[in-house]
């Protein structure tokens, strides 16, 4: 699997069509790279993952040189 | 005769911090029960000339080493560089815009134990908010603060992630872990990756409310431009973190999530991911760490960010 993953990620870095499939047409990507139905289902569901707080802030805590950015706090 | 080495080295990355660095050091010295046992190592991370870290107090200057980098290292590499210049048995990792609670040094020495990393309580300098370590958000690879005090039972005081505004660790353990991941760039993701790697290496991260660090959070109006400039690095670091640790079945899901969220940054982040050897990093960690990520998942009953079980592989 890791070789296939790396191949897909490399292709997405180099080829806008692959990146577009990754974003908008996961079935085409799955067909082209031979992903199993389970692998495709997981990939397709990624858009359900909401990495944001109700306020719309990215969920990250990043201590920087001058700031810590937090989800929903500290901005 | 050479002076005895200090017990605690406070390590501070500083980029354009100016006199905030000196105020942080003054606070730490004022609040220490034994200031003679404390040194400070400040890495000036290529600050603009007028914003270089400034330590004006003579007593503080005697206890402070400033290491200047002419190249922008980023927060992880800057902390690692500071640690390499440190002489104390204990590293107190924080930022150059913090204030220390009374007796922080004695509490650190009392609470630290072999194989243990301390996560200290983080306070906001402009509100009543407190953070008690963080928890991991997968597969986004961000974190959320814990905002309640952990249960006093020892096992329940363990937290997934220590904030790098207040992480206390024996220098020998920090070195053995390899410090922060210098394959990451500039901003974002360093502290959760370090924490997950520490857990996988067999260390524990224990939260304490006995040490409080009051932190200057960047005002809201400054954040957008700052994060905008750092976004590609942040996406890359999240992807590198996930590639190094996540089960394979979640990696592509993570990449798609970031592609959907950050379409203007994903391609460059993927290029950097390959150039900086993320897959090699995954293999190295798998070969050297005693625990897999699945162990971490079981230890904390970790779920993904919409509550689904995290797959084993």
UniProtKB/TrEMBL annotation, chain A:
Species whose genome carries this gene: Streptomyces olivoverticillatus
Name under which the protein is recorded: Uncharacterized protein
Automatic annotation (TrEMBL), chain B:
InterPro entries cross-referenced by the UniProt entry: Glyco_trans_2-like, Glycosyltransf_2, Nucleotide-diphossugar_trans
Chain coiled-coil ranges: none
Cross-referenced PANTHER family: GLYCOSYLTRANSFERASE, SLR2126 PROTEIN
Molecular function terms from GO: transferase activity
Organism: Streptomyces olivoverticillatus
Alphabetized UniProt keyword annotations: Transferase
Top-rank taxon, per record: Bacteria
The protein's name in its UniProt record: Glycosyltransferase involved in cell wall biosynthesis
Domain annotation Glycosyltransferase 2-like: ranges: 9-105
Transmembrane regions: none
């Amino acid at each position: 699997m890791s070789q296939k993953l790396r191949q897909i990620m490399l292709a997405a870095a180099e080829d806008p069509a692959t990146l577009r499939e990754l974003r908008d047409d996961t079935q085409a990507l799955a067909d082209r790279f031979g992903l199993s139905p389970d692998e495709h289902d997981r990939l397709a569901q990624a858009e359900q993952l909401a990495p944001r707080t109700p306020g719309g802030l990215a969920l990250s805590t990043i201590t920087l040189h001058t700031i810590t950015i937090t989800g929903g706090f500290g901005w | 005769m050479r002076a005895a080495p200090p017990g605690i080295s406070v390590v501070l990355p500083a980029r354009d911090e100016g006199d905030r660095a000196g105020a942080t050091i003054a606070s730490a010295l004022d609040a220490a029960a034994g200031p003679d046992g404390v040194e400070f190592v400040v890495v000036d991370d290529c600050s603009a000339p007028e914003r270089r870290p400034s330590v004006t107090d003579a007593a503080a200057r005697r206890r402070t080493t400033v290491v200047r980098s002419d190249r922008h290292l980023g927060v992880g590499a800057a902390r690692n560089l500071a640690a390499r210049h440190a002489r104390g048995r204990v590293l107190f990792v924080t930022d150059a815009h913090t204030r220390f609670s009374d007796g922080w040094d004695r509490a650190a020495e009392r609470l630290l134990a072999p194989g243990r990393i301390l996560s200290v309580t983080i306070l906001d300098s402009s509100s009543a908010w407190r953070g008690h370590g963080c928890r991991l958000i997968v597969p986004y690879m961000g974190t959320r603060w814990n905002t309640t005090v952990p249960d006093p039972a020892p096992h329940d005081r363990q937290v997934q992630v220590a904030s790098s505004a207040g992480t206390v660790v024996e220098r020998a353990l920090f070195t053995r872990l390899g410090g922060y991941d210098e394959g990451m760039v500039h901003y974002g993701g360093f502290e959760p990756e370090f924490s997950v790697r520490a857990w996988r290496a067999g260390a524990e991260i224990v939260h304490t409310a006995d040490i409080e660090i009051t932190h200057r959070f960047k005002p809201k109006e400054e954040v957008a431009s700052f994060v905008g400039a750092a976004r590609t690095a942040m996406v890359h670091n999240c992807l590198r973190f996930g590639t190094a640790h996540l089960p394979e079945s979640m990696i592509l899901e993570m990449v798609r999530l970031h592609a959907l969220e950050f379409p203007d940054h994903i391609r460059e982040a993927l290029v950097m991911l390959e150039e900086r050897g993320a897959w090699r990093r995954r293999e190295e960690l798998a070969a050297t760490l005693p625990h897999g990520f699945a162990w971490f998942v079981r230890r904390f009953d970790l779920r993904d960010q919409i509550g689904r079980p995290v797959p084993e592989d």
